[in-house]
């Protein structure tokens, strides 16, 4: 049975076009193998080229759905980067949302009927942006969401240090005009690619009273204005949310797909091992998986498989990709460019992909980011550098030129099955050229704290994404505004490179030439190495008609549509 996919609510023709079927030198060039569901870039391109709408589709309301989740360690609304927080997009709301990956911004809490631009006004040539709130917004505790809560939420999100690309934002810049109006006084006009969306659609609006009333300051409980409310939270195990019967937006004609509650109860269950995805689906413990799975694990759910009549499979290349970045501070031996080049030429990304699970599971990337973005340059796939060609002998030559004396290189990363698999392969590749290394893996919070200390790590393996442009992947990782120190978060002091980034981020100068210039500068200085991007698999039950995605490529279960179970 064919099922529809929507990145908001797509036309029938659109749904068909992006559907998957049911139920020593080594080249680092991208693999060409395709699986039945490997529609990746074609799907994303098709979504972006076709009309999308924020209007909600018809659906039956089902009693429950249980979904696999990554480890859930916190419900902190000020941190939208950590894994395992998909439930927050149904509990809380933002001023604006983005219409799927690469889509347009549209109002959520902002009043679409006011303002020249649908929810806001802007005085051209200035950094002043006026936002109009809907009236009568209330959270699940009955607290009214007002303009003062908008100011509180943006300052709190900024203070938490989990933002990137907010260089035009300053604490206190949100002026409260009245209960339903705020003016953002940014330090400049937001003329960079996706800059406004990256601020307004990256901050949950939280009642200051709800925050102060919470014993945990909303780290282990939740209270938002979204169509769902928290029922229970067990760290490392599950989050259960249920549809509110007192949701503030009572005008159905104004409710977007994101504001629907087509499931009464949604349970997110932590499942950390891919083999357990299959067990959970087969025994009915979970109804849906949104993660990476090897081809052998998917077999039972594809056409001809044992469970093909009960499930469908959709696969796409994620916008989140893995990379490796060195510590360039004087505290690390990686400040030596020859050692950096030795390490990078030692890494065979094609071999890494094969060790990870093969071409149907992941693909190499030849920059920081991948070709799912419209501003990716195909020339990077044929450039001759460490990204495209691993070379053990050349790596050893650079190592001999370096000041390396056998020190143990500390690889800082997140403690998880996928990161461990990647790091173990890289560890062996480094050892193969004579570089000793160890893996230091931690939970996200601990890792973030250690990452800020130049004495605690040498190589950093992490993932980075954007919801619109490749240049914003670069900005999220390397814009010096992210650190507040004038350096990048990897301790690079290169004003010229930052100026090049500012240029390519600006709409008028976002050109192929400037994109390539920034990336070639990164290559010449061995500042970063792209590793790979995963194919994400959605295994979903046959009683789901359409899938609704955020611009982060996460499913919004309440906005999906259903038939009777």
UniProtKB/TrEMBL annotation:
Any coiled-coil regions, as ranges: none
**Its family?**
Belongs to the bacterial solute-binding protein 5 family.
Q: Name one GO biological process term.
A: peptide transport
Keyword check for DNA-binding = no
Q: Name one GO molecular function term.
A: peptide transmembrane transporter activity
Q: Which InterPro entries match?
A: Peptide/Ni-bd (IPR030678), SBP_5 (IPR039424), SBP_5_dom (IPR000914)
Family matches, as SUPFAM superfamilies = Periplasmic binding protein-like II (SSF53850)
The domain of life is: Bacteria
Record-given protein name: ABC-type transport system, substrate-binding protein
Could you tell me which residue ranges the Solute-binding protein family domain spans?
Answer: 126-469
Q: Which UniProt keywords apply?
A: Signal, Transport
Signal sequence annotation: 1-20
UniProt xrefs under Gene3D superfamilies: Dipeptide-binding Protein, Domain 3, Periplasmic binding protein-like II
Keyword Transcription regulation on this protein? no
State the GO CC annotations. ATP-binding cassette (ABC) transporter complex; periplasmic space
